[in-house]
Amino acid sequence: MTTWIFLRGLTRESRHWGEFVDQFQRVMPHQTVVTLDLAGNGRLNHQRSASRVEDMVADCRLQLALRHIAPPYHLLAMSLGAMVAVAWSQRQPQEVAAQVLVNTSLRPFSPFYQRLRPANYARLLRLLLPGAAPQDWERTILHMTSQGGHEAVLPNWLAWRHTHPVARLNALRQLLAAARYVAPLDPPHTRTLLLGSAQDQLVSVQCSLTLARQWACEHRIHPAAGHDMALDAGPWLAEQVREWFFKSP
What we know:
Elements: E1 2-7, H1 20-27, E2 31-36, H2 53-66, E3 73-78, H3 80-91, E4 96-102, H4 112-115, H5 121-128, H6 134-145, H7 154-163, H8 168-180, E5 191-197, H9 206-215, E6 218-222, H10 229-232, H11 234-246
Parallel strand pairs: 1-2, 1-3, 3-4, 4-5, 5-6
Helix pairs in contact: 1-11, 2-3, 6-7
């Protein structure tokens, strides 16, 4: 049985996968899915977030070792989580059999204004300043990461924020980790699929297209989804993984 490790992005936790885990397992019924939280998020919100992506890799590996979940792993990761996946497959290639990277952006392949689109700078700054209300934080994140129609998730997001709040300092440390990580120039030896969203308002889809060109790996673009592809286009995402996974390398 294949083990899939799901990794979310900046300040998000495993519960933010929402319905996608079930959608994935409906099309991949004989796979084991393990959702991990990065330190500082979700069940690990009491921990200090790492400020280096490489340290996030070490923490993920420790979590799996403590749960006696052995490699090889297949990684499905979004945004910051996808940076963790890239670093993981670079540093421990024997552990990562395959990786699916969703709406990620990497130095040195993409400029800063594509990695975080300028329209979001002021909104993110307001959230990181003291005094931002929880409902403002979650509603802003939803509007930045989704193309609409998902307001029903907000009560759950607010409840999770209430029970497992992400400290402002931890959010800053995660943002620093994403900003400072530099990916290897050489293509990964790990089998890789890149998925991007044409309507991503947080990270330009050009980041995925450039990376696919540089690494000469397979890529697919959803025409209407936002940054949170698992929320906006979960069934499509699951189906792309299924088709790619069972296709001969």
